[in-house]
Amino acid sequence: MHRYRTHTCGQLRESDIGQTVRLSGWCHRIRDHGGVLFVDLRDHYGLTQCVVDPDSPAFAQAEKLRSEWVVRMDGKVRHRPEGTDNDDLATGKVEIYVSEIEVLGPAGELPLPVFGDQEYPEDIRLKYRFLDLRREKLHQNIMTRVAIIDSMRRRMKEQGFFEFNTPILTASSPEGARDFLVPSRIHPGKFYALPQAPQQYKQLLMMSGFDRYFQIAPCFRDEDPRADRLPGEFYQLDVEMSFVTQEDVFAAMEPVVTGVFEEFAKGKPVTKGWPRIPFAEALRKYGSDKPDLRNPLEMQDVSEHFRGSGFKVFARMLEDPKNQVWAIPAPGGGSRAFCDRMNSWAQGEGQPGLGYIMWREGGEGAGPLANNIGPERTAAIRTQLGVKEGDAAFFVAGDPDKFWKFSGLARTKVGEELNLIDKERFELAWVVDFPMYEYSEEEKKVDFSHNPFSMPQGGLEALQTQDPLTIKAFQYDITCNGYEIASGGIRNHRPETMVKAFEIAGYGEQDVIDRFGGMYRAFQYGAPPHGGMAAGVDRIVMLLCGTTNLREISLFPMNQQAMDLLMGAPSEATPKQLRELHIRVNLPNKGQA
Known about the structure:
There is one protein chain. With 593 residues, the protein is of the alpha+beta class. The protein contains 17 helices and 22 strands. It has helices at 59-62, 122-127, 129-132, 136-158, 199-207, 246-264, 279-286, 303-306, 312-317, 336-348, 368-385, 400-417, 459-465, 495-504, 509-523, 537-544, 575-581; strands at residues 20-33, 36-43, 46-52, 70-79, 94-105, 162-163, 180-183, 191-194, 212-221, 232-242, 276-278, 300-301, 324-330, 355-359, 365-366, 392-398, 428-432, 437-440, 445-448, 475-480, 483-490, 530-536. The strands form 5 sheets. Strands 6-9-10-22-21-20-17-11 form an 8-stranded mixed beta sheet, with helices on both faces. A hairpin with a 4-residue loop joins strand 18 (437-440) and strand 19 (445-448). The radius of gyration is 30 Å and the shape is globular.
């Protein structure tokens, strides 16, 4: 007999009845029923009920067992007594009558319970993550993550992609976030950087003639914590292809992502034939560049109905041609209580309020706005929005560049409050035609709005002749249920176009050579047209596991302060380490940031 087990704790069935077996695992739950001890023994594979009564030679040892002790148990498989089957367990028709117990690893008093799914303080959970990971739901999430990554790999290979690994120690690169720097001992005063993404390497692979690349790539960004991104590191399905248009990337990746979602959606509907939404349309209709399409509400521009109207606040705003009035329909929201609640919510968001019109029985509009603009304009708004009696509409006015985010929040709030969002589905879409540039109010200059390596639509000619803020890029995102889960683009592979693109953002040719020298050189020696994308593994797993917290799908995450409470990182370096690296620590004074 094997030293530790003949079977796993999830393996025994009725066909094993009568066999003498050996199991090893953790004491998940121990129950005393009238002097008979029941031990639910757990391992990675499942749970088996083990019974020890006073007649068993193992009874004295069993009385000493405590929760989470690791033990070996020998015994005979038998039917559970009639009426005690557990159909929720794969092993639920059998139990083991225990004849021998060996304690392999006793456990101290637990700082958090493993049995059950109750909430526990996050700092305790992260400090004792090895215990937290024993909990059933978290354990299942991690195994789902493993299976999702396996599915991604399989589907990518079926599409003709090859898996390559790119360097972790690389050069610092301005890709939109702060680098993690690694000091070089051999080259004093110089630093490597951990890659924010394998962007340049994957493009260089295309220069090298490898054609179709993918990688489950770790990425490192020294960013402030965000709700939808783990501090420090995250993983992405990184992809690049040669001799492709945007359509080719879509054709290759849409079935991969759809297939992964369908495989793990547990029967929930998944979008087939994803819609393609231009960036400007996404902002206008949904107030978001990552719209949640489970919410059926679409905003509309109703400026004409307020222009020159009796509602002077909006009418005066509309004298400025850049200002608009947007309407958010609210089916079933035509009660004063709901409209007042939305108005209070808007004030809590720092807005002066949220104008509204309610349509009462007979189709008449009600509320201050309706009274000011009159029945004819109110009826025209109702017709345009397609709302009916008992419905309402909310209005946001001003410069759309400044209010679109708030309008998107209001659309989401209305959808949630009126239970319009179907939470039992996955709605995927492409968002396309991102602007190449944006104006940075902070730096008072034109800057890249997205990936600086994207090809501008119209190429070099557009860069030379168009207002930069009107140029669109071959840049696209994949969105799902209000999250951006992937981003990509067709790359700018012509050296002169690359230099011009950076020049518009305030970088000279020498800056390009200094910062992206390897790639710039590669473009001089026959660069194929190429493009790709990167999908966020963590976010996809999070959506498919039905959680909104990335820590619930990651093995050993940091906390919101970017600290690893389990391993004690970051930690201070020893004087010897600092001497070897030729580094002196210059700490800020207490009270300084």
